[in-house]
Design a protein that fits this description.
- This protein folds into 3 domains: 173 residues, 3-Layer(aba) Sandwich (D-Maltodextrin-Binding Protein, domain 2), CATH 3.40.190.10; 146 residues, Alpha-Beta Complex (Dipeptide-binding Protein, domain 1); 222 residues, Dipeptide-binding Protein, domain 3 (Roll), CATH 3.10.105.
- The two termini are 22 Å apart.
- It is α+β, with helices and mostly antiparallel strands.
- Strands 14-20-13-19-17-18 form a 6-stranded mixed sheet. A 4-stranded mixed sheet has the order 1-10-9-8, with no helix packed on it.
- The longest helix has 18 residues.
- Helix 8 packs antiparallel against helix 10 and helix 14 packs antiparallel against helix 15.
- 27% of the residues lie in helices and 16% in strands.
């Protein structure tokens, strides 16, 4: 609970200096009217972004920006329904094994080149090439010729065919209920010829697609600057001149920049700041909660001791008190004990899910060969278990709670706090991380995305593995394959229930909570609401220039005593985090 506690203590320190701990009122007023062109939207990420190559960058932060840089054959409308994007329409054969996509004419890439069917095929093959570290190639394994191509035994992905210059056809080996969903992912979005036919690392910092915005500046840990793609195919859009997306910005800093009008939209609030906004009358009715499409918890690497022992994994799942976890961030965090969020599959009586049962946890430790006596503190697993968590995040807070709870069954965690890029690198590399934070946000609105990329055998890779537990179970693999083949929704729901039961019994994850963000934006920002599928989908937003009083507020009125520290125009420009002893 260190990160939450630190921020609360800092708020108290500010109050002691004579500063209000309330939040400033919204900037501007709501006004009706048609969308305006112009203006730059400014927002921030708590984390860094490792790269913007759609074929390889698959984390939530990168995906939000990739959705602005790339357009795909299909996408989701504002209601979350699949619709054509670069395709004019979608033609599906009666047997569900052949999809044809006639392309829009006159679509241009950021470099001015016209989009053709050959570009679509080249981009798909590039993403699925044997040398491309694509994190989820198995999503596309039903494309005819995938295995031979992805294994480097064929030069061509035979199931992707050109039907003239402006139509692409994709043939599948069997029906796939998720196929249009995976075609909506940025992974296979068309990229410029500068990306090459084979993946190269340099494209990640110089992305080029056919989306509404293009990248003009990319500095790791600092900023990604996007500007309008003037040749965008959807006439009159985007409305914004550009987007400045700041990176590695602490949530506390984001809040005060938002109050000053230096950020227009935020969602990574601390619990203390979130509560302030939720209880301030001027902000009542503003903002919205993001749909909860996230499952969080702890992964256990099943290839490494002690978690190659199923009983030890089960002991961990029984030892976690999920309600205690949720109490740390009420509103944002809810106790959750199954893989699929309730938004996609609501639990029913008897639905399989993990439970908190201290006696069962002790019994599983005994069955695993590591009995523990809570009265004497003797026994348990004899070594400390390294646990990877992300610096200054809820994952770090949860780790400290897990540490206390698992100590009661004889498992001692040694928390290792690292930055986001390091976390991704370590957890995705085979036999590197024993245990750590596990979190998954839906790639698309289907239960399969909470099993296949993170728990299926085919998702295991030596590097860039999304299956951080390196979990392999033939029964689960079979259930997931049958669920993807089926077009009967009742049958698919039954099969995913069976998959949940396997996870309960095998416990490669200790599922613990689901997380929602409270998203806030100033009244002068229009055209934005949390999307039912796409995270931070700001591509249609626009700014009321008459209401955005740039720099009119100066500094937050709650920080007058600290203006010289927090306002770059008034002094040294030290951040509020520096005052708390944090990094400058």
């Amino acid at each position: 609970m260190h990160s939450i506690r630190t921020k609360i203590e800092l708020l108290a320190a500010l109050a002691a200096l004579g500063c209000s701990t309330g939040v400033a009122p919204p900037i501007g007023e709501d006004r009706d009217g048609p969308p305006q062109r112009g203006g730059v939207l400014r927002t921030a990420f708590f984390t860094d972004v490792r790269g913007l190559d759609a074929a390889t960058a698959f984390d939530t932060a990168a995906s939000a920006i990739e959705s602005l840089v790339y357009d795909g054959l299909v996408t989701y409308d504002d209601a979350g329904k699949l619709v054509p994007q670069l395709a004019e329409r979608i033609d599906v054969s009666p047997d569900g094994k052949r999809y044809s996509f006639p392309l829009r004419r006159g679509v241009s890439f950021h470099d001015g080149a016209e989009l053709t069917a050959a570009d679509v095929k080249r981009s798909i093959e590039r993403a699925l090439h044997v040398k491309t570290p694509c994190p989820v190639p198995s999503y596309y394994e039903r494309i005819v010729g995938f295995s031979a191509y992805h294994d480097g035994k064929a030069d061509d992905l035979t199931g992707v065919k050109l039907d003239g210059d402006y139509q692409i056809t994709i043939e599948l080996t069997e029906p796939d209920a998720t196929f249009l969903h995976i075609m909506a992912l940025p992974i296979v979005a068309p990229v410029c010829k500068s990306a090459g036919k084979v993946w190269e690392r340099t494209f990640a910092s110089k992305p080029c697609g056919a989306g509404p915005f293009k990248v003009t500046r990319y500095e790791n840990g600092q900023i990604i600057k996007l500007v309008r793609h003037d040749g965008y195919w959807e006439k009159g859009k985007p409305y914004l001149d550009g987007i400045d997306w700041f990176l590695s910005m602490q949530s506390f800093t984001q809040r005060f920049k938002f109050e000053q009008g230096d950020l227009d939209y935020i969602r990574e609030l601390s619990e203390a700041d979130s509560l302030l906004y939720r209880t301030t009358p001027a902000w009542r009715g503003r903002g919205a909660w993001e749909p909860s499409l996230t499952t969080g918890g702890a992964f256990m690497n099943t290839e490494m001791a002690p978690f190659d022992n199923r009983h030890v994994r089960r002991a961990v799942s029984y030892a976690i008190d999920r309600e205690q976890l949720a109490s740390v961030r009420p509103g944002h965090v809810r106790a959750h004990a199954k893989m699929v969020p309730n938004v996609l599959i609501a639990p029913e009586p008897g639905y399989p899910q993990q439970t908190f049962d201290y006696a069962r946890a002790l019994e599983e430790m005994r069955l695993g060969g590591y009995p523990y006596d809570p009265k004497t503190g003797q026994g348990g697993y004899p070594k400390e278990v390294p646990y990877l968590a992300i610096l200054d995040s809820y994952a770090q807070t949860a780790a400290e709670i897990y540490q206390q709870q698992l100590a009661k069954i004889g498992i001692r965690l040694k928390i290792q706090v690292v930055g986001w890029p390091t976390f991704l690198a370590k957890t995705s590399r085979r036999k590197t991380a024993q245990m750590g934070f596990a979190g998954w946000h839906a790639d698309f609105p289907d239960a399969s995305t909470f099993f296949e990329p993170i728990l299926a055998t085919k998702s295991i890779q030596d590097e860039e593995s999304q299956n951080a537990a390196f979990f392999s179970n033939r029964q689960l693999d079979d259930v997931l394959d049958r669920a993807r083949r089926s077009t009967d929704e009742a049958e698919r729901k039954r099969l995913y229930r069976e998959a949940e039961d396997i996870v309960v019994q095998e416990a490669p994850w200790a599922t613990s909570y689901t997380y929602s963000y409270l998203e806030l934006w100033q009244p002068y920002l229009h055209g934005y609401r949390p999307h039912p599928v796409l995270s931070q989908h700001v591509r249609h937003a626009w700014i009321d220039g008459g209401q955005k009083k740039v720099a009119a507020r100066g500094c937050s009125r709650g920080l007058r005593a600290l203006d010289r520290f927090t306002c770059p125009e008034r002094g040294a420009g030290r951040s509020t985090l520096a005052l708390a002893g944090g990094p400058r």
